[in-house]
């Protein structure tokens, strides 16, 4: 069994290669060539945490694996992240474990590269201005990934904590070589943006439809619980919506479920999977003026496909520690 640390995983992935891997994974998933249940979440109120399992099998890539995510809200008091993740890969022939690797970086980069994948096929070709709501790990990963698939001139960055936005600017501006401007409100970040990323833990909408320019594309990745949402119902109704998984969206996505509950949209409004667009089975953007929205809840086929790529690269480059169990 190969053991791969976070540092090892980071050194094995590139945005361009991972976007291609995720395109294949989503096509397999949306054409019936993958097996993946909705994530299983086990609440642990006695110990102030929860554990989540996300298994998947992709028949085209012959990739079998599972991500396990834990959330313990008291962890930061002990110097640990509240959320920790591990991905396991197994042989599809025997079920023997092949690798175990850190899943934190995989979660961040696969989510951002899935948004980059969606941006490639849904956004208008010219997207000079990007607005980002949130300044955490996912926002950083999205800025890095989206700058690789679209030429941008400026990025407007909003966080309720101004210090977080300034720190992210200082970290990323020299790397991406694009002007990053921290702004004081979500409205400032959204108005005039050709691309938008919402990556927050907001319980109520942080994005308002009136701020959106015609032709904008939105990657919405936060608030994946049924009772939380970042996107207001008017935006959901106004946008052409694409999802990573119909089943997962209807089980756990508050952005969609609350808009349906309020009567703003019907279930079919958020039923087209991005994999169906990639496979040529459903249309994506059809006019330059359309507002498109990719709603990501994050699915196991993304984790397993990413882990398979990491494993293959690790074997090629002789990275990691081999352990007998």
Salient structural properties:
16 strands, eight-stranded mixed β-sheet, 325 residues, 36% helix, eight-stranded parallel β-sheet, alpha/beta, Rossmann fold, ornithine cyclodeaminase, domain 1, 24% strand
Give the helix tally: 11
Rounded to an integer in angstroms, the radius of gyration calculated over CA atoms is 19 Å
Q: Could you state the order of secondary-structure elements as H and E?
A: EHHEEEEEEHEHEHEHEEHEHHEHEHE
Roughly what percent helix?
Answer: 25-40%
Q: What is the tally of beta strands? A: 16
Q: Return the structural class.
A: alpha/beta
Please, how many domains?
2
The shape is globular
Overall pLDDT, averaged? 96
**Uncertain stretches of 5 or more adjacent residues:** none
N- to C-terminal separation? 7 Å
Explain this structure to me?
The protein is an alpha/beta fold and 325 residues long. The chain has two domains: 2-106 and 301-322, ornithine cyclodeaminase, domain 1; 121-298, Rossmann fold (3-Layer(aba) Sandwich). It has helices at residues 6-10, 15-30, 104-122, 137-149, 162-176, 186-190, 233-238, 246-252, 254-261, 274-278, 300-317; strands at 2-4, 34-35, 40-44, 49-58, 63-72, 83-90, 97-102, 129-133, 154-158, 179-183, 195-198, 217-220, 240-243, 272-273, 292-295, 321-322. The strands form two sheets. Strands 1, 2, 3, 4, 5, 6, 7 and 16 form an eight-stranded mixed β-sheet that branches. The chain has an eight-stranded parallel β-sheet with strand order 10-9-8-11-12-15-13-14. Helix 2 crosses helix 11 (300-317).
